[in-house]
C-alpha cells in the first residue's frame, strides 16, 4: 500500500507542471484520475516526434513528452463545455481529496468548477491552482510558459557563457520545480486537513517558484545590490567549481573546500595551495581569472578517465559530462533502477524514468503506464460514482463523455 493509497486526485491539469505533480502523487499510491477533452486530450499527446514505437518499430502516435509525466493515472474523457459534463466533474470532485488545475485565472468559474464552487460541495477538498503569475497581481490574466518565465524570472540572465547569449535550461525546469512545489503544497494541505478537517486553496505561480529558486544567486544580489553575471559552467561563490577540458573531452571539477583544493593540487603536481592568491576559497574567487586558465592548462594533460580515477582516490569531487546514452548505461544509474519499462496497450511496453523517492515502509509503485486517451472512463465512473453501464451510456448520449 502506497503512502497515499487512501487519496483520490482529480487532475484537470495538462502539459507539464500539474501533470508532474499528479504523477508524483500517483507514484506514492494515490488514485489519480486525469480528465481530458474528447478527441485530443492533453496537448502533449501530440507534442512529437518522437513517438512511442510499437513492437514493429512503427510510431504509435503517443508522444514521448506525454509519456514522461503521465504514468500511474487513469484517463477519463469529459466534455467540459457540456452542462452534463460539468455536472459529472462536480460529482467526481465531491468524491476527491485533491483537485489539480492549471487553467487561466477564472477560467473554470464559468463551468462551476472553480475553488469556491467545489469547496461548497466538498469542504475537505484540497484545490491546487497552477498559473503563470498567480491569482492576483497585474500579470494575473497573462498566460505563463516555462521559457517565458525562465526569462522573466531571472534564470536566463544567469545561464550561458559570459560573452554569449542568455540561455534557457535544457529541460523545462520552472515547470518541473512548480510541479514539485505543487506536490509539497498538496501534502501540507492534506496534513493540515487531518488537524482541522477542512481543505484549502493553493495558489501557485510559475513566476513565484522561479524567483524563489534563484537561491544563492538571489541573495548574492540582495546582499550587495550587484546583479550576478553569467559565468557559463563556473560557480559565482566557489572556485574551482566548473567544467575543464581534458585530453579527450571535458570533466567537472567541484572543489567545495580548501582541503579538497590542496588534494587536487597534489594530484596535479602544483603548489597552488601554498600560493596566497589561491590558498583560500575567498582568494580563489577573487583571483579566478588567474587560477582558472592555469588549471585548464593542466587538465588537458590527462584524459577524463585518468583525472577521475586519480581525484576520486583522494576524495576530490569530479565527474564526466555524460550524454543521455551514457547516463542510462552508467552502473550507478542501472543499479538504482532509474529506467523503467511499463506495460502499454499499443506498444507492449513503454520506457520511463523511475521516481527518485525511496521510502522504506511505503515505497512508490508503478501500477500502470501512461494511459490511452479515455481508456479508463467506464472503470472510473463505476469505481468513484458507482454508475451503471446504462447510466454511462446515457452520459454518452448527452455528449458528456468522449
Automatic annotation (TrEMBL):
InterPro entries: CoA-transferase_III_domain, CoA-Trfase_fam_III, CoA-Trfase_III_dom3_sf, CoA-Trfase_III_dom_1_sf. GO terms for molecular function: CoA-transferase activity. Pfam families: CoA_transf_3. It comes from the Bacteria. Keywords: Transferase. This is Crotonobetainyl-CoA:carnitine CoA-transferase CaiB-like acyl-CoA transferase.
Amino acid at each position: 500500500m502506497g503512502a497515499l493509497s487512501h487519496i483520490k486526485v482529480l487532475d484537470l491539469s495538462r502539459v507539464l507542471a500539474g501533470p508532474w505533480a499528479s504523477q508524483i502523487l500517483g507514484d506514492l499510491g494515490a488514485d489519480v484520475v486525469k480528465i481530458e477533452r474528447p478527441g485530443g486530450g492533453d496537448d502533449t499527446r501530440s507534442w512529437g516526434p518522437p513517438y512511442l514505437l510499437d513492437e514493429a518499430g512503427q510510431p504509435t502516435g503517443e508522444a514521448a513528452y506525454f509519456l514522461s509525466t503521465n504514468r500511474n493515472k487513469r484517463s477519463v474523457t469529459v466534455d467540459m463545455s457540456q452542462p452534463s459534463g460539468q455536472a459529472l466533474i462536480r460529482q467526481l470532485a465531491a468524491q476527491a481529496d485533491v483537485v489539480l488545475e492549471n487553467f487561466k485565472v477564472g477560467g473554470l468559474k464559468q463551468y462551476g468548477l472553480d475553488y469556491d464552487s467545489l469547496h461548497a460541495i466538498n469542504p475537505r477538498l484540497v484545490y491546487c491552482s497552477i498559473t503563470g503569475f498567480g491569482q492576483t497581481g497585474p500579470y494575473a490574466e497573462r498566460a505563463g510558459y516555462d521559457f517565458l518565465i525562465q526569462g522573466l524570472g531571472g534564470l536566463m540572465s544567469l545561464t550561458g557563457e559570459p560573452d554569449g547569449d542568455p540561455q534557457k535550461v535544457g529541460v523545462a525546469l520552472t515547470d518541473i520545480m512548480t510541479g514539485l512545489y505543487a506536490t509539497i503544497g498538496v501534502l501540507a494541505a492534506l496534513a493540515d486537513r487531518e488537524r482541522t478537517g477542512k481543505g484549502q486553496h493553493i495558489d501557485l505561480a510559475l513566476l513565484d517558484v522561479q524567483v524563489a529558486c534563484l537561491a544563492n544567486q538571489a541573495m548574492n544580489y540582495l546582499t550587495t545590490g550587484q546583479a550576478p553575471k553569467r559565468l557559463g559552467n563556473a560557480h559565482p561563490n566557489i572556485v574551482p567549481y566548473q567544467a575543464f577540458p581534458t585530453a579527450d573531452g571535458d570533466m567537472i571539477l567541484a572543489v567545495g573546500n580548501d582541503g579538497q583544493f590542496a588534494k587536487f593540487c597534489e594530484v596535479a603536481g602544483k603548489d597552488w595551495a601554498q600560493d596566497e592568491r589561491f590558498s583560500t576559497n575567498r582568494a580563489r574567487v577573487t583571483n579566478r581569472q588567474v587560477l582558472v586558465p592555469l588549471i585548464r592548462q593542466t587538465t588537458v594533460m590527462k584524459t577524463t578517465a585518468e583525472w577521475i580515477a586519480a581525484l576520486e582516490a583522494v576524495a576530490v569531487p569530479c565527474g564526466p559530462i555524460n550524454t543521455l546514452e551514457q547516463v542510462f548505461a552508467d552502473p550507478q544509474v542501472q543499479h538504482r533502477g532509474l529506467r523503467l519499462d511499463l506495460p502499454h496497450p499499443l506498444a507492449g511496453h513503454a520506457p520511463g524514468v523511475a521516481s527518485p523517492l525511496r521510502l522504506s515502509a511505503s515505497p512508490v509503485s508503478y501500477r500502470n503506464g501512461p494511459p490511452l486517451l479515455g481508456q479508463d472512463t467506464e472503470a472510473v465512473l463505476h469505481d468513484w460514482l458507482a454508475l451503471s453501464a446504462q447510466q454511462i451510456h446515457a452520459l454518452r448520449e448527452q455528449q458528456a463523455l468522449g
